[in-house]
Amino acid sequence: MNDQAESLRRLVKKSNGNGAKVIAVVSGKGGVGKSNLSLNFALALLKRGKKVAILDLDLGMANIDILMGVNPMRHMMDVIGEQLSIWDVVEEGPEGLAYIAGGSSFPTLVEVDDEGMRRFFTQLEQLCNYYDYIVMDMGAGVSKTSLEFTLASDDIFIVTTPEPTALTDAYAIMKQIALKDQSKPFYLIVNRTDSQEEGENVGKNFTRVAARFLNKEVRVLGTIPYDKKVIQAVKAQTPFVLYDESAKASKAVFQLAALYIGEQPDDSNRFDNFVSKIKRLLMKV
Fold first, then answer.
1. Beta-ladder partners of 112
2. Which of 79, 215, 220, 277 would be a feasible disulfide site paired with 152, CB 3.0-4.6 Å?
3. Distances from the Cα of 36 to the Cαs of 44, 144, 241, in angstroms?
4. Over pLDDT 90: what percentage of the chain?
């Protein structure tokens, strides 16, 4: 076991570049627009000249493919099960957005043997030198595997709506994550607001509660107004930032992306650190 652990440590190489920044997008409950936000935020980054990949790890309600009208032929676990390269499972979405499906067997990743895990992480590391951002659409709530990936990310986006049940569940998932890693940066996005004022009030109340009871700082990244164009875009299986760039929701997401990039620290080897962390968390190396 010690020899295996040492070989796994040697497997992780330091990247020569800055590496991809990994964002985990979470929510306490389904139905708050998390997947739609993940997809459109990734496209907003892409439109700002960034190389972006999105991983659909929302296995209970995986629908990134439906939202952008793509039928994935492969998924992430095929890297292990069928001995494929990571590039064999990358699908091309709209505007050249890279998309990787998690697959229904993704929760069993923790059960994979050492050889399979070595192959998985070797392939996963190849993404770090190519993409600027990796956006992971996590499932609502927390599972063992999704929690490990979330903890290994650089930043965590919490998506909620102003509804009391959504806010309660958003706080609950943040608490669960923060108890595992108090240093993890959190960003709050309030979706489907009736007004800017409503979104700002929700953000203020949420951050105040987090600071008081969790001693945790939460940055309010912004709000997204309720917009009928979003519903129309979903029906058309087209991301709303592409369906109508002038729509209120589209403008809000573009603003979120610009704000996020402006706050981005200059941190090298980010994705390499992600691979190291997720390996350590899943394999307990």
1. none
2. 277
3. 12, 23, 10
4. 58
